[in-house]
Write a structure and sequence with these properties.
A hairpin with a 4-residue loop joins strand 1 and strand 2. With 65 residues, the protein is α+β, with helices and mostly antiparallel strands. The chain contains one helix and two strands, in the order E-E-H. The chain has a two-stranded antiparallel ribbon. The radius of gyration is 13 Å and the shape is flat.
């Protein structure tokens, strides 16, 4: 099966970073796509969403329930 994935982010006016993040993890058995919202915008929201997406994608791609 072929899955194409495209990510496009739009920063709020005046912000350098987006508060949302996407992580795609491809394994031989599955593909995990995690969408994370940092609640807000800017650096703090970006850091929160980056940490959350990494934790979630690691847990889900390792096969944990």
């Amino acid at each position: 099966m072929l899955v194409e994935c495209e990510v496009r982010q739009l920063n709020k006016h005046g912000e350098e970073l987006c508060g949302d993040n996407v992580d795609v993890v491809r394994n031989p058995d599955n593909t995990v796509i995690v969408l994370s919202d940092g609640l807000g915008s800017g650096v703090k929201a970006n850091i929160l969403s980056t940490m959350t997406k990494k934790i979630a994608s690691t847990i889900l791609s390792s096969g944990m329930d």
